[in-house]
Amino acid sequence: MFLLDEDEVICAVKPFTEGSSAITIPHPASGRISDIERAGFSYFLEVSVAREFIEGWLSNKSLLPSIEEQCARLIHYAEFDA
After folding, report:
1. Residue whose C-alpha is closest to residue 25's, from 17, 14, 80, 34
2. Coil, helix or strand for 16?
3. Sign (positive/negative) of CA torsion 68, 70, 71, 72?
4. Per-residue pLDDT tens for 55-72?
5. Alpha carbon distances (Å) from 42 to 1, 37, 58, 77
6. Between 45 and 5, whose confidence is greater?
7. Nearest C-alpha neighbor of 9 from the set 39, 36, 56, 73
8. In what order do the strands lie in the sheet with 8-12?
9. Which has more confidence, 8 or 4?
10. What is the band of 30 on the pLDDT scale with cuts at 50, 70, 90?
11. Which of 24, 54, 60, 75 has its CA 20 to 30 A from that of 44?
12. Would you call 24 helix, strand, or coil by DSSP?
């Protein structure tokens, strides 16, 4: 398991899929990630928000979803609900 800094932001290459390249960067104070965007990455979610969402979602499950299912649910959340 990788430990991610709660203050970082996840950026990934669109379209967001389980196989998308992704990186984390320090939270940009200005709210802009233009250097990352020029490199082909787009804002995905803040690490803290992603972690909170997954932990909350998993707490309501009786069976642990696969990593693929967790990834798909997080992508859906990032694209449509966040």
Report:
1. 34
2. coil
3. positive
4. 999 998 888 899 999 999
5. 24, 6, 26, 15
6. 45
7. 36
8. 22-26, 8-12, 42-46
9. 8
10. low
11. 60
12. strand
Amino acid at 61: K
Q: Enter the tokens of residue 56.
A: 């909350």
What whole-number distance in Å separates Cα of residue 62 and Cα of residue 78? 23
**Model confidence band, residue 2 (pLDDT cutoffs 50, 70, 90):** low
> For residue 42, what are the β-bridge partners?
12
**Which of the pair, 19 or 1, is modelled with greater confidence?**
19
For residue 26, give the amino acid letter. P
Q: How many CB atoms lie within 10 A of CB 20?
A: 16
Cα dihedral across residues 46, 4, 76, 43: positive or negative: positive
